[in-house]
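Record copied across here:
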Amino acid sequence: MASGKVITNTTKAHRATEFIAFLDQVKKEVPKDLEIRLVLDNVSTHKTDAVRAWLIKNPQFHFHFTPTYSSWMNLVERWFSELTNKWLRRSTHKSEKDLIRSINHWISLWNENPQPFKWTKSAEEIFASMEKYLRPLDERTSD
């Protein structure tokens, strides 16, 4: 997050096996003396016994889970938005292999000059804009 560099691995499935392989890749690419904090959604793949066992063996990794329906808090989701809006919507792909090649090309272009995302609003401003949605449904219907 600090550098904006993207570490990725495209797989056909998103099971614990693939997730652990990705964690191993991150471990190889990030300096050993850094704590690694991952912001994750609540998909069950991230919480399996195999993943928990891997975490015990790799204490420099720390998981932080976003609340349900809060993908906007995950900067990876913000990066996926960039990928979609600036690359995928402007391109066509004849096959899955072609799509993966295109995504990997975008990532290599991104990593030539990575830019970290920065919040442009304070937490107070974000929650104020969400106030209507945070109120109980019966209170919202009177608006």
